[in-house]
Specification:
By secondary structure, the protein is an all-alpha fold. The protein is built from 20 helices and 2 strands. Helix 5 runs antiparallel to helix 12. The longest helix is centred in the first third of the chain and has 30 residues. The radius of gyration is 22 Å and the shape is globular.
Length: about 475
């Protein structure tokens, strides 16, 4: 006789216990579908927002200045990212038709797209943002079409691939943190000054100390608390700019196409389509992990719905001046820690994100943080992404076959734009959009080599590589969503 599915068995046992305790009927709702009292719903949702807030506003904070936006325009971009992250989260948790995983799954701005977006829009101002938005719309629509097929290809994206990509994301972003720590503007007189670097070091120590000493909810927001304390310390040093706060509106709506109509360039579209595949890979792994944590294993249909929500959210996001959306892994860790499995709690967090996006002054408060302070926290923020990738690689059986060689080649190629920025200077400009992103090139190399060594021409007596082993363990709550 065939064994019953594990979840059904557990569900029957749990229902029997509930009935014997007089707590409900055998057909009571799964914890994922339960609603909580309003106050608990709000506070638990706010906790999810606090855990992800820094990760949502950091990408626009990086991309805005890189493409030449003013402080006020960057603050607008941050508010729009909060708004669109809320919409994407609501799509995931509530869903409609076959869209949405309907799990406590948080969506926000993907770090995977930061480096490619900078390469696309660097110093191009509004035109650069318009090209980025056009590429994201196409990538989102392509991903939506591919979702039913992509969910069947999980076996081609084992930990050796996802771990390599996540590691490259963190390593590629660390130079941004180092630049911030020096002041952010290489032409400024105080760039790299002892004051700036000391402020970054102080913030780094504060974040690490808070992470060590605090517990529970406060530990989850150690980076935010570190930014607040670092900013307060920086005020007497005279490196805090209150200009953006004074210019911000108390209430406002992310005006559609605020930076102009989207523009479509082939090279930019190719680059962002690669990023979309990376995001879909990471989201798939995160859904598998979350399904195990909440006791509702993610099947193909769940993954398909989750990917559709990811990609539809990404396609709609640029209409309101937001970036590509993907899963936030730190919130999965939060679900595991708090044991609160209701998707409606995360939906409440999505509503809070939307409301924050409608209050530009709230986003402007984040713009008060001096770049050296942000740089100190960024070392932990981005380093934790790389650490998450290393953690995933630890499950990738590197001692088996040519897995170590796959990682070595992919990381080596992915680090070229960081270690030798002018390496591709003789290549056509259209290719540079892809080649200057170590994440994109490293991902392509990892996928191709994994297929070559672990799939094509494999002998029948060879064991297949472990699949999605990283999904067995919840990621560290401090880690970021990537391609996170």
């Amino acid at each position: 006789m065939a064994a019953k599915p594990r979840f059904r068995k557990n569900a029957v046992e749990a229902d029997a216990v509930a009935v014997s305790a007089g707590e409900g009927e055998p057909d009571r709702k799964h914890p994922v579908d339960e609603t909580l009292p309003p106050l608990r719903m709000f506070t638990s949702g706010l906790q999810h927002v606090a855990a992800m807030y820094a990760g949502v506003v950091a990408p626009p904070m990086i991309v805005g200045p890189a493409v030449g936006l003013s402080a006020k325009e960057t603050a607008f971009l941050m508010g729009a990212s909060l708004f669109t992250a809320g919409i994407a989260t609501l799509l995931q948790t509530l869903g409609f038709w076959r869209i949405g995983a309907k799990l406590p799954f948080v969506n926000g701005v993907s770090f995977a797209g930061v480096t490619p977006m900078i390469a696309i829009g660097k110093d191009r101002g509004h035109d650069g943002i318009a090209v980025i938005f056009g590429a994201i719309i196409v990538a989102g629509l392509l991903g939506f079409v591919l979702a039913p097929y992509f969910c069947k290809l999980v076996r081609f994206f084992p930990p050796v691939v996802t771990g390599t990509v996540i590691t490259l994301i963190g390593v590629s972003l660390l130079p941004v943190a180092f630049n911030w720590s020096q002041g952010g503007n290489a032409t400024a007189d105080d760039y790299g000054s002892m004051t700036n670097i000391t402020m970054a070091a102080v913030t780094l120590v504060i974040v690490l100390a808070l992470r060590k000493l605090l517990r529970g909810f406060l530990q989850q927001i150690a980076i935010l608390l570190g930014l607040v304390i670092g900013t307060l310390i920086a005020i007497p040093a005279g490196i805090t700019d209150f200009g953006a706060l004074g210019d911000a509106d108390v209430v406002g709506f992310p005006t559609p196409f605020h930076f102009g109509a989207p523009q479509f360039e082939i090279a930019a579209i190719i680059s962002m389509c690669i990023v979309m595949l990376v995001c879909m890979t990471e989201s798939t792994a995160d859904m598998l992990a979350l399904g195990k944590i909440v006791g509702r294993p993610a099947d193909e249909r769940t993954i398909e719905g989750g990917l559709r929500a990811d990609t539809l959210g990404s396609a709609v996001s640029p209409l309101f001046n937001g970036f590509m959306c993907s899963a936030f892994a730190q919130n999965i860790g939060l679900v595991a820690m708090t044991k609160v499995r209701s998707r409606f709690v995360v939906a409440a967090g999505g509503v809070i994100l939307v409301l924050l996006g409608l209050v530009p002054v709230a986003a402007s408060v984040i713009a008060l943080v001096p770049l050296p302070v942000l740089g100190g926290a960024g070392i932990v923020l981005f380093g934790s992404v790389a650490a998450s990738g290393v953690q995933t690689l630890a499950t990738a059986a590197l001692e088996k076959g040519e897995n170590a060689l796959i990682v070595a080649a992919a990381v080596g190629v992915g680090l070229i734009p960081i270690a030798a920025p002018d390496f591709y200077h003789a290549f056509p400009e259209d290719l540079l959009v892809v080649l200057d992103s170590g994440i994109s090139t490293g991902c392509v190399v990892a996928i191709v080599l994994n297929l070559a060594f672990n799939h094509w021409g494999r002998r029948p007596d060879e064991e297949p590589e472990p699949e999605a082993a990283d999904s067995e363990q919840p990621k560290d709550p401090m880690a970021l969503p990537v391609a996170h």
